[in-house]
Task: inverse folding
């Protein structure tokens, strides 16, 4: 099983890094069995690296690698790197009435499912992916409640 590394590479949004690292470690083995294409690419990686960045940084990555202007929530690279926007997570958490912690973990789970062959470009595929990610998110939040960790 791959290891998972989580780095905070932004300063604008205060994130609970110890909790996020723990929750991502909890989520990883829950994501591995869910392979849409049967290849299970996530399990073949030696590590998954998560970089939490600003909207400005993710917008540049979005443009440079996908040719799409503007920020997004998460970008997944096949070699196991996930780039997650803290600004977008904060905005979406406020909009959807969720916590920043849950939103960040959702993006990490979403990215890991992309590594395992899930896509969300077509409506039916997106619904299937969202069902799996929501179930994994719920399990992880029960196993590692953010309130059990100090804020840093």
Result:
């Amino acid at each position: 099983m791959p290891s998972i590394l989580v780095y905070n590479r932004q300063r604008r949004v205060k994130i609970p890094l110890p909790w996020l690292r723990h929750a991502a470690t909890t989520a990883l083995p829950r994501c591995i069995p869910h392979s849409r294409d049967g290849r299970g690419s996530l399990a073949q990686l030696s590590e998954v690296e998560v970089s939490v960045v600003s909207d400005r940084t993710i917008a540049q990555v979005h443009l440079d690698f996908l040719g799409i202007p503007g920020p997004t929530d998460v970008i997944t690279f096949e070699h196991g790197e996930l780039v997650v926007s803290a600004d977008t997570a904060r905005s979406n958490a406020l909009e959807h009435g969720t916590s920043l912690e849950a939103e960040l973990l959702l993006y990490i789970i979403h990215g890991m499912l992309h590594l395992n062959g899930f896509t969300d470009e077509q409506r039916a595929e997106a619904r299937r992916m969202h069902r799996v990610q929501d179930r994994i998110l719920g399990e992880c939040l029960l196993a590692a409640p953010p309130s059990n960790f100090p804020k840093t």
Summary: The chain has a mean pLDDT of 94. Residues 46 and 72 are 26 Å apart (CA to CA). The chain has six helices and four strands.
